[in-house]
Design a protein that fits this description.
This protein is of the alpha+beta class. The chain is 33% helix and 15% strand. The protein binds a DNA duplex through α3, α4 and β5.
Length: 156
DNA sequence: GGCACACACGAAC
DNA sequence: GTTCGTGTGTGCC
């Protein structure tokens, strides 16, 4: 049985660095992106999530314990994202270190992060070049800088 | 299925 | 600063 009984809920809202959109199916987070959609379909779950993100962006330390929908990802991607979730608030890790944990190459690790469906929740902004440079970010480097600053990471 | 190519890197020159 | 090795995903064929 694979009925379409689940509805996709989504909401966009403006924050400091720009718009952010969250999408969820029932009580599972399916995607976060940095765009603005006109369509707004809220439910309790997504309202709470929005509130949490707004708190986080105000500098509050929020632990996002939301269930994530990994169903469209490869086992390896899931592995990397789970490892990344272990990186604590206001700490950073290099692509190299992350790659080591995941037993892969730094290049490959970056490749995975570029496809992160849950930026912010999965803290890909905490991954930077071992040279100290920022690396990249799907929503643009302004976002990355902003997030690091919020978390009071040294040097930002 | 296989293969070529693109990459949010890093290390060596 | 440039070049080369590198692992994974994606999209061709």
């Amino acid at each position: 049985m694979q009925s379409e009984s689940t509805t996709t809920y989504m909401v966009s809202f403006k924050t400091g660095p720009g718009f952010i959109t969250v999408e969820a199916k029932d009580n599972k987070l399916t995607r976060i992106s940095f765009k603005n959609t006109k369509e707004q379909r809220e439910n309790e779950f997504i309202r709470k999530l929005k509130k949490d993100i707004q708190s986080y962006l105000r500098g509050e330390k929020v632990s996002f314990g939301y269930p994530l929908d990994f169903s469209s990802l490869t086992p390896f991607q899931i592995k990397v994202f789970k490892l990344l979730q272990e990186v604590p608030y206001s700490k950073t890790i290099s692509y190299k270190e992350l790659a080591k944990k995941a037993k892969t190459s730094p290049r490959a690790a970056g490749r995975i992060l570029a496809s992160n469906p849950f930026p912010v929740i999965i803290p890909c902004h905490r991954v930077i070049n071992s040279s100290g440079a920022l690396g990249g970010f799907s929503g643009g480097l302004d976002w990355k800088k902003y997030l690091l600053k919020i978390e009071r990471v040294e040097g930002f």
